[in-house]
Amino acid sequence: MNNISEQDRANVLVQALPYIQKWAGKTIVVKYGGNAMINEELKDAVMSDIVLLQLIGINVVLVHGGGPEISGMLKKIGKESKFINGLRVTDEETIDVVQMVLAGKVNKSLVQLLEQHSGKAIGLCGLDGRMIMAEKKASGIDLGYVGEITEVNTEVIENASRNGYIPIISTVAGGYNGAVYNINADLAAARIASELKAAKLILMTDIRGLLRDKDDDNTLIPVVNVSEVPSLKREGIISGGMIPKIDCCVEAVRRGVKRAHIIDGRIPHSILIEMFSDEGVGTMFY
Question: Cys-Cys link to 19, which of 140, 201, 209, 276 (CB 3.0-4.6 A)?
Answer without folding.
Answer: 276
